[in-house]
Specification:
By secondary structure, the protein is of the alpha/beta class. The protein has helices at residues 17-28, 47-55, 82-85, 89-95, 117-120, 134-143, 153-160, 166-169, 182-188, 190-200, 208-218, 243-250, 276-293, 312-332; strands spanning 6-11, 35-40, 59-62, 100-104, 108-110, 126-128, 130-133, 171-173, 177-181, 223-225, 259-261. The radius of gyration is 22 Å and the shape is globular. 40% of the residues lie in helices and 14% in strands. The chain has a domain at 6-229: Spore Coat Polysaccharide Biosynthesis Protein SpsA, Chain A, CATH 3.90.550.10. Strands 3-2-1-4-9-6-10 form a seven-stranded mixed β-sheet, with helices on both faces. A two-stranded antiparallel sheet has the order 5-11. Strands 7-8 form a two-stranded antiparallel sheet.
Amino acid sequence: MSRQTLAVYAAADDSYVPKAVMALRSFQRWHPDYSYYLLGTKAAMSQESLQFIRQFNIELIDVDESHRFVKLEQYKYPYPLETVIKLKGPELLAERGFLYSIVIDGDVFCARPLELEGLLGRIEGYAGRVVGDLARTLGNKQKEQNEEFNFSLELVCKTLGIDEAALSTNYEVNGGVLLWNNMFMAKLGLFDRVTQVFRQCRGCFEGGQDLMTFVAAAHNIPFTEVGDPYNFNFFEDSLRFDAVLQERIRMGQFHDIYIVHFVWCKPWLRQYRPSLVKMYFINAWRQFIVDELGETAYGLFDDLSIIQPVSFANRLWNRVLRVSRLVRCNLWK
């Protein structure tokens, strides 16, 4: 695959640099021929972060778009702007001559070499793993009870020009791994569309994922669906049910997974009795971090200890302890 065909990138503020860089590095070890970028505001980054980025031959693209997301009281966006700024990546990389790009979050891990030859040519706009339809997203936004913009069906259709039929034909796509057709997005002017929808909805978004959902629906962006192996979140938020993959994983066969997304089990945090598949990939991530960074890793991440499987004897003993505590509590009542 040509170097100018594909770039992989992430976005981060200063505090998130180690996680984003190591996520990129997990791809880089398998695909050194791709190009790697980090989107962020250089002036807001420490010298340690800048050095950490350079250490792995990742190029920082200096992006400061805060002026387009004015921090007025009515704009309730609670996350770092980098979660929205990453949506500028396709246009920036199109300017650099890349036909396609992959954007990843810092809690993403590439577990094995990717096989993209047949996939990229099918992407007209963007691609990703579906978590629900637009109707689901709309319902979740209504539950937030935003006073500035309540996301009623009538208001959304009128403000964004979305047809009611789009509720079942458009999707919310997990934002942790997205594949872009950069040239299409550059022609569309994606980031201008993003800021437009953000302002039209009075900034009432909790993250880039729901924002992108409404942008895609409002501007009819072509979408290509990919399955769990390219954004595996342990079947915890997928719309589709891949019974074959689930059965293989139940049998301890994890080789079908290309990219893992640790949405609700951050691998750098202490874990409480993770499932075997979570244990496998968390341990793989932790070993990768230590191999890459050595002793430095322990100052950057909270917990890098290898998780040991709980034996039958330990499970039985823990159950005895729980029963004993319950008995003592009942006796004291």
